[in-house]
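Troubleshooting log. The previous structure file for this entry was overwritten by mistake, so regenerating from the original sequence record. Sequence copied from the archived sheet and checked twice against the printout by T.R.
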Amino acid sequence: MSSALVFGIVFISFQRCLSSSKAMVSTFNKIHSVCRGSQPYPRSEVSRVQVSDDKVAWTVDHPEYKPVEFTHSFIHGQVWADEEITQENRSKFKWNTLDENKVNRVGHNGVYTIDPDTGRPRNPFGRTGLGGRGSLGRWGPNHAADPLVTRWMKNKEGEIVKDPESGKPRLEFLAIQRKVGKMWALPGGMVDIGEKALDTAQREFCEEALNSSEWKTEEDKQQKHLVSELFAKSEPVYEGYIDDARNTDNAWMETVALHAHDPTG
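Regenerated output below.
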């Protein structure tokens, strides 16, 4: 993700619902449906084999299951991507660990299993109808970080607006609109090798919401310090699997969502 994908920035109001991380996690109970959809895989014409709800789990016997095999051609040879898994090199992959090259192969949802026949990791939430990596660089978990930056909603008089039903203050959160598809999203991105999720969240926030690629003056660069101060008080509200259209049987997205609240507005 980069600032080139940013179409605009908006503050969208929503009722406060971050009273605890447990409350946030409970909203992710019904997952693993987007990556089994009937739409073609992103940026391709490849369609998935459809998997019924009762056949998603790997623990359910499904001998006739033959997923479509697909890895985007632009993945091959990229420095940020894994190589193909073969019989000869499968032992070099250190699954469920932070390997010697600082590639984080630990999943937020616990230990994932490895297919004994192919040596590939298995999506912890089951079959998707597509094998390979799709457009994801890593076999197994592909880690991202998403900053959830909020402030209190205020009226013209500068007073905090409260919800008429609950009486609780309303929050506004910052989102970006992407050029492709015009969809709204949090300004997040992929965690680089050796990078912490907090650092990723700050970097992506600066790139996508503040257009840091065009910072030139010292005054511009001062914004980075302000962002660091804001994120120093951030808290994780979700860590885990994302039901992402890019997910496959062998590669999937995971994220850490960090809530950073700006009381000054």
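The beta strands are 6-15, 68-71, 130-134, 140-152, 170-178, 184-185, 189-190, 235-241, 251-261. Archived copy saved in two places this time.
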